[in-house]
Amino acid sequence: MLSTLKINKCLLKTGTYLRNLHSRLNDFDIEYFCNSQNLKEIEENINRRKGIGDINLVYKLYNKYISSTSEEIKSELESKLISELWKLPNRTHPLVLERNESKLMKYIGEKKTFLHKPLHCQEIVKRLNLVRSDQLGNFSGSKSYYVLGEFANLDRALVQYAVRGLLDNNFDLISVPDIIPRSLVENCGLITAGTRNQIFFLNSNLHQGDMCLSGTAEMALAGMYQNHIFEKKELPIKLAAVSRCYRAETSNLAEERGLYRVHEFTKVEMFLIVTPEQSDTYLEYVRDIQEKIFTPLDLHMQILDMPPHELGAPAYRKYDIEAWLPGRGIYGEISSCSNCTDYQSRRLGIKYREENGEVKFVHTLNGTAAAIPRLLIALTETGQTEKGVIQIPKVLQKYMLGQESIKKQSRIPQLKLMKNKK
Amino acid sequence: MKSALYVVGDKAQHMFVAVQPFIDFEKRLKDKDELERNITRRCTSIDLQKIEKRYYFYKTLEEKKEILEQTKYEINNLYEMVIKETNSDINKINQLKLHKHVVTEELKSLKEYLYSLEENVMISILGLPNDIHELTPEEDQIIHEFMEKPSHRSESHMKIGLNIIKLVENWGCYLRSDASLFELAISNYFQRSLIRSDFIQFQNADFTRSVVVEGCGTDVVNNKEVVTIYEPNTKNEVVEELSRLHLTGSASMYAFMAYFAKNLVYRSQFPLKYFCYGRSYKGLRSNKNLFDLTQESALNVFVASVDDVWVHFKHLTDDIIQIYNNLGYHYRLVYLQPSKLNKSESLRLSIQMFSNHQQEYVEVGNLSLYDTYISERLLFSCLGKEQIFPKLIGVIS
Fold this sequence. Notes:
Helix content of chain A: 25-40%
Number of strands of chain B: 15
CATH class of the largest domain in chain B: Alpha Beta
CATH superfamily of the largest domain in chain B: Bira Bifunctional Protein, Domain 2
Order of helices and strands of chain B: HHHHHEHEEHEEHEHEHEEEHEEEHEE
Number of domains of chain B: 2
Family (chain A): Belongs to the class-II aminoacyl-tRNA synthetase family. Type-1 seryl-tRNA synthetase subfamily.
Radius of gyration of chain A: 25 Å
Structural class of chain A: alpha+beta
Mean pLDDT of chain B: 94
Structural class of chain B: alpha+beta
Protein name (chain A): serine--tRNA ligase
Number of helices of chain B: 12
Strand order of the largest sheet of chain A: 1-10-11-12-15-9-8-4
Keywords (chain A): Aminoacyl-tRNA synthetase, ATP-binding, Ligase, Nucleotide-binding
Largest interface: A-B, 63 and 77 residues
Distance between the termini of chain A: 92 Å
Shape of chain A: globular
InterPro entries (chain A): aa-tRNA-synt_IIb (IPR002314), aa-tRNA-synth_II (IPR006195), aa-tRNA-synth_II/BPL/LPL (IPR045864), Ser-tRNA-ligase_type_1 (IPR002317)
Low-confidence stretches of chain B: none
CATH class of the largest domain in chain A: Alpha Beta
CATH superfamily of the largest domain in chain A: Bira Bifunctional Protein, Domain 2
Strand content of chain A: 15-25%
Low-confidence stretches of chain A: 14-22
Largest sheet of chain A: 8 strands, mixed
CATH topology of the largest domain in chain A: BirA Bifunctional Protein, domain 2
Oligomer: heterodimer
GO molecular function, one term (chain A): ATP binding
CATH topology of the largest domain in chain B: BirA Bifunctional Protein, domain 2
């Protein structure tokens, strides 16, 4: 017969075993992050990325955790440790780590020359009655906007064109939810605490479930496969989605006025799930697809390899594509693609099984195939003519019943705001 | 009784009142019997007698207020005159002062009472439903059918679509491969058909403020059926409750009315024939099948006319028949009975397809006649000498 002491020891061991088996701690790369030899490297990475997180605290908590014998204290330490590990940013690609600024990879297309002084998109859309954004705050919220007539047709044409491009490259189109749990947003690497963040939350007095609005389809796509184990032969998974993206951020910068930074917009997004060996190659693949989609739009663009402090928390490496905006005389970001390695998959539990049965975390990548308002700006400022119309790139014309240019939308009335009665 | 559409008194001190709806209750009372029948046919429990009684009481007090204001004005004038006289009678001055004080106090307490009475009466009036169109039948009436109703019973769409519809917990419904391609293709088809029928495309905002939602006839204050956004920096409790931000979706009547609310349009510009393809959001739903989703991709048509709106309703019905016939599936068009109409609808043409699994018809779209009900509430009017409110039609598909 077993003594009580032995039974207790046995239960303790079983409890520890079960906790280790199911602990979310195992989802983090403990071997790397809690190894004293890596502390300097990790600290430097955090500093270079201007990220948050305290690796020394992580290490301290980890040591306390492993030396603790009390189940209760261990459990408390574990929660704290997970919370601190969660804050740490991803590692950084070695080619990028030392850089303080972005590196120009290449130019695409030529800067268009104009016989007239090119106008800012805001001025063009106002003259041609293509967008309304004034006097809407009391009815559809601040910074809202309506895209009108042929400009809305161009908006839809861009979506169809980008989706066609992705379907031709064997992406699987997914229709995604826009209202998602806060935990999913956090697990994708966005901080939701504090008032100055990018997320719209649902009113928790009226709606249960701690839900928020998705800022990008990448979150919902990642959420579709949380706690999923793929077989290696299933990878890579290439997903595409058209979604409405909601961002609470605002900007008062003059160059970001109008459609440049808005609370809601349509975006065609790519999301890839690959093995760790494939992710570097697939980042180039995503970038290549973006080039193939954007080049026929007759824009002048530059591709940048982004420095550590521009990567955010999840990306290991990130390319930005910026289009030349002649009206503003600056390059403006129209797209980006990131390799998030195992940052998101560890937080979401997305894994794959090797041929030998070993289960590992997948790598995830994302890229924008079309962020509609930014593309509308670039196409408007680049396609403007001296006659005051906007030329539509040839590749988009077939999605607009053959239309070649956009003129003033005179069938859409100019509105006159009613005065308040006293 | 709280309203985001009719805000007066102390509440109006705390928030910007975007719209003061146009209300002509006496016009509606001209055919009181019809309004009573309307309420009965819609199976709503509105006590019209009570509203009428309160309304006339309010009118009486309003008149009293005007008399007091006039009296106050005249006493003031008299007082000013008397004190300017060189040999003014001190007794007379004191008497006038006292009189002035009494009238001011009475006016003050009357105004305070009137605010709450006005709020109560006007919100009750705004709660009245739209007039019922003469074509709205006593019971659902099929006006068009295409092909035969399928006779076989099938599995549910969730079982058939096991590989193309993915549910995640109770929040996520994903359409995959052929299902998402279908969504894309059908939206492109509807969009092309409408552009060819001379409709103009809009890409609307997805957010609306409470005033617009209630203006369109949906009760909004603390209504869980409308997705409400948390706003961290609201000015005060009144704003927090009555001027919220909602996610209603771009493909909705709400979005079009947010565009036109409190705006005037030249008569020559009518009719307006617009559409938007985008999202439509309802309150948080079960998301267990495609009939009960929080979010849907939808196409919303908006028509505004100052002339014969019925012509447009008929044209739209023909357009719907043309568009749906081409799909090659059985469907029917049904005028719904009054009890199935929303408060703002005068007539609803329901587009219904047959669920082989549930063995019943399911509404997949509708064509709603609002007449001037919504435009009056949100002050969308025609620019001219007279105040003319456009008649509105909305289609969801």
